[in-house]
Structures are given as C-alpha cells and as structure tokens.
Design brief:
Elements: H1 3-36, H2 42-57, E1 60-64, H3 68-71, E2 76-80, E3 83-86, H4 107-113, H5 117-121, H6 126-156, E4 161-164, E5 167-170, E6 177-179, E7 185-189, H7 194-210, H8 212-225, H9 230-251, H10 257-269, E8 278-279, H11 285-293, H12 300-318, E9 320-321, E10 326-332, E11 335-341, E12 348-357, E13 360-370, E14 382-393, E15 396-403, E16 406-411, E17 419-421, E18 425-426, E19 434-438, E20 445-455, E21 458-469
Parallel strand pairs: 1-9, 5-7
Antiparallel strand pairs: 1-3, 2-3, 4-5, 6-7, 6-8, 10-11, 10-19, 11-14, 12-13, 12-21, 14-15, 15-16, 17-20, 18-20, 20-21
Helix pairs in contact: 1-2, 1-6, 1-12, 2-9, 2-12, 6-8, 7-9, 8-9, 9-11, 10-11
Amino acid sequence: MDDAFIALSYRLLPILCNMSLAAGAAVLLILPVRLALRRAPACFSYALWAAVLFRLLCPVSLSAGFSLLGLLGTPAERISGSLTAVSAIPPDVVRTPSPQAALPLAGEAVTNALPQGLEQLAADPLPVTLATAVWLMGVLVMAVWGLCSLLRLRRRLIGAVMLERGVFLADHIPSPFVLGVVRPKIYLPSRLTEEERRLALLHERRHIRRGDPLFRALAYAALCLHWWNPLVWLAFVLAGRDMELSCDEAAVRHLGRREREGYAALLLRLSAVPGPFLAFGAGNLRSRVERLLRPVRLRRRTAAAAAAVVLAAVVLCAVNALPESSVTAEQVEDGMSISLELRSPIRSWMLVEEIRQGETLLSSLPRLAKGDADDPLEDPYRQSFLLTTIRESDSGPQISARAGGAAAQWSLPLPEGDWTPGGFAPGPEGLGSSYRKTLREAETETVLCQLPLTGEAGDLTVRYLLVTSAEPADFSSS
C-alpha cells in the first residue's frame, strides 16, 4: 500500500474524528437549549447551529477557560498562538507505545482496550487505511448523490422564463426554490397566481438576504465529510427545519391575518424539491403552519434573555478548552528530544543538571538557558531542544544540548573513576522510550530525563530539570 496514503490516513482520521467529536458534543448541548427556546422565534434556534457547522468544518478554534469541551475533559493542543485543536484522539494514537484516547466518558475504557508497547508500535496499518478508504467512499457517494440531485433539478429547468431579474418561471417544478450560492436565483412554478408568487418571493428573497444558500451548501459539505456520524444527520435535519421556520416568520412579519392564512395554504399545497436545496415546501409543514397562524411574540426583555442564552451556547460550543501544559521527552538515537507545550506563556527557561548518588546531590549546575532581555523567546507557548551524549573525555562523558540557535557542550563533573554512561531515559522513572507529563500551574521544575552512570565506586544518575519563568531572566548571575 502506498506510504503516502498510509501517512495521510494516520493524520487525517484523527483530525476528522476530533472535529466530529466536538460537533457531536455541541449538538448534544444545543438540543436541550433548542427545546427551551421552542416558544421563542425560530431565528434563535437557527442561530445555534452555526456553532455545529463551525465545528464540522474548522479543525482549529480559540481557547477559553470555560468551554463545553473543557467541562467534558476533552484536551486541546496549541497550533499557533491562541489557536488550538481538539486532541482527544492524537495523531499518534495508533503507532505509539503508550496510546491514549481522551474521549469524554469512554476515554479510559478506549485507552485500556488499546494494545501497549511494541505490539502497538508495530501496529498493522491495514485497519487505519481501510477505514480511510471507507470514509472516502462515503464522501464520494454523498457528493455524487448531491450532484445527481442538482442535475435532475436543472433538467426540470429547461425552458425556464425570466420573470424579473433573478426570478424565473418553470413548468416542471413542484415548489419554489433558490438555486446557486454566488449568484442565487429564484425559480417559481409557472402555475402560481400573482398573489402566490408574491408570497413565495417574500420567503425566497428572505433566504437570499440572510445568506441561507451558502449556509445550506456548507451544511451539506459538512454532512459529506461526517456522513458516518448520526448526530450530524440529526443536526442537518433540525437546522433545515429551523431555517425554514425562521424564514417564514421573517417573511410574514408585516402581513395581516388573511395574508398569513394564504401563505399557510400555499405551503400545504406545494411539495418540496428533493435534495440538498432550499425549497419553499421543505421542512416540517405542520410546525410551520402552526407558527404562521399563531405567531410568537416576545417582550423586549425576554428576547434579550433568549439572545444571551443563544450567544452563550454558541461561544461555549465553539471554543476549545485551554490546552494543558505538558512536557514530552522521546529517545532519538543516543539522545533525548524534549518538547514543551505551555498553557500560559513564559518569558524564559533554564535547563539544570543534577548529579546524584542515591538521594545524595553531588552537583547542580545550570547548563542551557533561553529568554533573556537581549534574546526573547520567539514562541512563549512552545519550546523544544535536543540533548545528546557525544563522547568520552578525560573528565567524563560529554553532553551536547541545542535549542534553536542556542547550543552548549560540557563535560560532566564526576568523581574520580571510570564511568560508563547508559542511554538517556525519559522522565523521572526512566520507563519506555517516551515520556509525557502534564505540568501543574505551580510547578517550577520538572525532571525531563536522566542518564545512568555505572562505575567501580557505584552508580550515579544525571538528571536534567527544566525551570520556567514568566519574566525574562538575567542569566549572567547564574
């Protein structure tokens, strides 16, 4: 199987799953909020679905201290600056010795079910690539069905006659509808009377003014990408209903009782055009007729409260949780690659070397520092560097460290004797080939990795700790 497709599968599927997970969580929050707003104008319910559409189409978002995904314990990783992405399913969840899936509710069960160690590291790519192929087939089927619906509809429009600019009459369509996104056009059945045309145009022009054709096209594109998620299908249907209800309410806002009744009768007489398009007779006709005959009217204070609820729900669903601060150490040949992800920005950091014999501290020295007044950190949220054992010398093993443009090299200040270094081990325990730790806010120093040394006088351990600061450091006094 092509290596590029395998690599794409490992990267693409987790991104899609995280987007779908975030959108599904948004749907589950919106459903009760929508139910609470059932007696309010439908425009409030319709506005709620913007958060779901955003989640389905955009893999990144801003972070906030209070978000729906944060309440569910769904982690986020920093992409750039204040932009983050949901990372409940990390890209390396398959080929890593310690896979973790931070899914809401079922995360621990899924993590425990994943194989660990070498078995997982050498995982067969076939299941992942097969799942990607199935997903692509589903996307293709959805896209072809939408295209065929469009072609069938256009076939019915052969011979359509322009009534006025942007409005056409056609003989073989059952219902008025809007077609097009960039320059949407309105098509009306030619059998409609002048009064019926006027009422239908009120509705279709309202769709165009609000940008509903674009929303519908994006919603269908999201449905194609996430066709396997039943919550996305539910959201697509309910958003369509709320769109039509709110459009009806806006169209008849200034009509009298008799005109509303005529509008409702026209709805009942016309059937919808099948497919992912804006059709006059689409949606739940019973609810639409009931709303037309019994319009909802809210006091100004009640409307303001409903708007506040909608805004809060949309923001709650659209933002990510603040990413946790974490440090990751991974073995690379004869060294360690260290990466640091920070929830709060730092201005400087220092790598400290400790040499211990048991619990006795023999030496403690600062070795590498970044972020003084003359050389500020380029990215205060993310740092990385490399530690390597390079060769033996008369004074003991030598260590090389590199962080961006800063580099350092030194010999370990060891007691007299011949010392043999083992390989770098990640973390304080030295287990496995990688180590990831979530950093607490008050934590000022963290053991990144350690280097065991063996000699005639006993065993030593060289530890490397990271010390961070929210202020630029004066390293000249270190």
